[in-house]
Structure formats: C-alpha cells, structure tokens
C-alpha cells in the first residue's frame, strides 16, 4: 500500500546513487529516474544536486528523507497490525547482524523462522557491529544483532545469547606457545585479530585494559574482516587468533585447532538485539520472541 516512489527516493538518498537504488529495488534505472522526477514535479523542488556522476541531497531532499523514513515505518507497522487482526503475520523484516552472529548463530534460526512465518519477507545484511548500528540509524534495517558492548544512547540493546572469545592456534603451527599463558605473555606472541569496529576486537581490547595492556603494545600481524579469514590465515601462518568459541567448534572437534587459555583473562560477552529507541514492536518483536524461545538450540 505504501507509496513506492518514497521507497525509491529513500533508496537513492541512502545510496546517493541511481544505479545502486536500481539494483537494490530490482527496478530499471530509467524507472528510478522517472519516480524521482515525479516527486520533484509534485513538490516543485529539486531533491538532488547533480555534479557529474555524483549526487547529493538538497535541503528539500533532506526534509523529504526525514519524513519518508517515518512514513514508511508507519506503513510497515500498519500492514503488520492490520494482518494481525486476522492472526496473520505478513510484512517485511530487514535484519542486520554482525559477522560472527550472521555466520554462526542465525542461519538455523532464520530457516525455522521462515518455515513458521512463510508470509514474512525476511532479509539479512551483515557487517561489523558498528556497521549494523549505523544501518539501524539510517533506517536500512529494522532490527540488529550485535556483539559485545553497548555504545549508543539512542539505541535499545536487549541481551540475547552468551558467547566467549578464545585464543586459538592451528595444531600444525610451529608457534611455540603452551596450552596456558598469562596476559603478560601476549606482547611476545604474533596475533591475527578482527578489524576495528568489530565487537570481537572491542571485547578483546577491553579485556586487555583490565591488565594494563594496550592493543598498540601487541604484535599484530594482520587485522582481518571476518572470522573465516582469521581461521584460514591461521592455517598458513605461525600465529594466534582471538575468535568466538562458536566459530571454531568444528575445528576443535576435528583436532585442527587448539585453545590457548589466557589465565585470569576471561573474555565473556553477550550477543544483543538492538533497536531504535521508540520503535520497538511489530515483526521485530515477533522475531525477538521467536529467537528467545529457540536460544537453547543455538
């Protein structure tokens, strides 16, 4: 029921690209241009400044974006509540999840959710925790799942699942490191870690501070953008990685990796749902309740 032109405008405004909006909405680029021209004609104002191949929002465009986000959110909530009157769960739910959660926690949960609610149009994007929070603030997703630390006051964080970070080395590594070390040993051990902005690195860095250690004092060979990249790196380099225990369960069972305990330095963390303050409810709440009922299987 919602005005598709507003969806087109929002996509162009978020991506600052007609081409990316076309790809995102599966609509031809001429059709995207036509919808924007219709909006500009209706409001009798330019919505975008065009400088060569680049575009930017005008003041009018910024105002329309502000209101279109509210309008489209209201349409989504209206659709959900109208169908709920008939005990039907219908609508669109856009999820965003940090890399570890997206790869190692969500897939079985998503499969079960789709089986139970086949009329919900479910989608997932993934990135690091800060990227997920940014997507939520930009209204590109409805509900996020992030790792570790509460960051932003305008977001509501709800604990979902416990997790633990562990230090691991490949069993064929030539790195001379025992099964138990102290935090003071860390500066002498080559490491591969997740990138800045990841929940994994945030938790590790916070644990270091409890022992008066800084990330800058460590011998970090590489910062990589995913846990899978770290695991592959460990297969070919004599170093140690810090990852979620969930991500290496199969490798530990198969004997390919071993855990190195860092004595006196627990690295516990929570996976959290994250929502915009004041926008709790709808299909996001349905998914959160569903996930809560199934957390024992994860």
UniProtKB/TrEMBL annotation:
<dbReference type="Pfam" id="PF03466">
    <property type="entry name" value="LysR_substrate"/>
</dbReference>
<dbReference type="InterPro" id="IPR005119">
    <property type="entry name" value="LysR_subst-bd"/>
</dbReference>
<dbReference type="GO" id="GO:0000976">
    <property type="term" value="F:transcription cis-regulatory region binding"/>
</dbReference>
<keyword id="KW-0238">DNA-binding</keyword>
<dbReference type="InterPro" id="IPR000847">
    <property type="entry name" value="LysR_HTH_N"/>
</dbReference>
<dbReference type="GO" id="GO:0003700">
    <property type="term" value="F:DNA-binding transcription factor activity"/>
</dbReference>
<keyword id="KW-0804">Transcription</keyword>
<dbReference type="InterPro" id="IPR036388">
    <property type="entry name" value="WH-like_DNA-bd_sf"/>
</dbReference>
<keyword id="KW-0805">Transcription regulation</keyword>
<comment type="similarity">
    <text>Belongs to the LysR transcriptional regulatory family.</text>
</comment>
<feature type="domain" description="HTH lysR-type">
    <location>
        <begin position="1"/>
        <end position="58"/>
    </location>
</feature>
<protein>
    <submittedName>
        <fullName>LysR family transcriptional regulator</fullName>
    </submittedName>
</protein>
<dbReference type="InterPro" id="IPR036390">
    <property type="entry name" value="WH_DNA-bd_sf"/>
</dbReference>
<dbReference type="Pfam" id="PF00126">
    <property type="entry name" value="HTH_1"/>
</dbReference>
């Amino acid at each position: 029921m919602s005005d598709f032109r507003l969806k087109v405008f929002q996509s162009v405004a978020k991506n600052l690209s007609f081409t990316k909006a076309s790809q995102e909405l599966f609509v031809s680029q001429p059709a995207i241009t036509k919808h924007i021209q219709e909006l500009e004609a209706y409001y009798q104002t330019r919505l975008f400044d065009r400088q060569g191949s680049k575009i930017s929002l005008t003041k009018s465009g910024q105002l329309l974006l502000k209101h279109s986000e509210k309008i489209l959110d209201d349409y989504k909530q209206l659709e959900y509540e109208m169908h709920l009157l008939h005990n039907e769960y219908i609508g669109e739910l856009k999820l965003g999840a940090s890399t570890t959660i997206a790869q190692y926690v969500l897939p079985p949960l998503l499969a079960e959710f789709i089986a139970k609610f086949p009329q919900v149009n479910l989608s997932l994007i993934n990135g690091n925790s800060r990227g997920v929070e940014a997507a939520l603030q930009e209204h590109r997703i409805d509900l996020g799942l992030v790792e570790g630390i509460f960051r932003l006051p305008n977001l509501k964080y709800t604990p979902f699942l416990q997790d633990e970070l562990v230090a691991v080395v490949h069993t064929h590594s030539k790195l001379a490191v025992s099964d138990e070390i102290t935090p003071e040993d860390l500066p002498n051990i080559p490491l591969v870690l997740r990138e800045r902005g990841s929940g994994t690195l945030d938790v590790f860095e916070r644990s270091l501070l409890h022992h008066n250690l800084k990330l800058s004092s460590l011998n970090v060979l590489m910062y990589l953008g995913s846990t899978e990249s770290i695991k592959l790196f460990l297969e070919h380099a004599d170093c140690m990685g810090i990852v979620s225990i969930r991500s290496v369960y199969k490798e530990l069972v198969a004997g390919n990796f071993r855990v190195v305990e860092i004595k006196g330095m627990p690295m516990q963390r929570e996976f959290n749902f994250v929502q915009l303050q004041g926008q709790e409810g709808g299909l996001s709440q349905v998914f959160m309740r569903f996930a809560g009922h199934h957390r024992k299987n994860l």
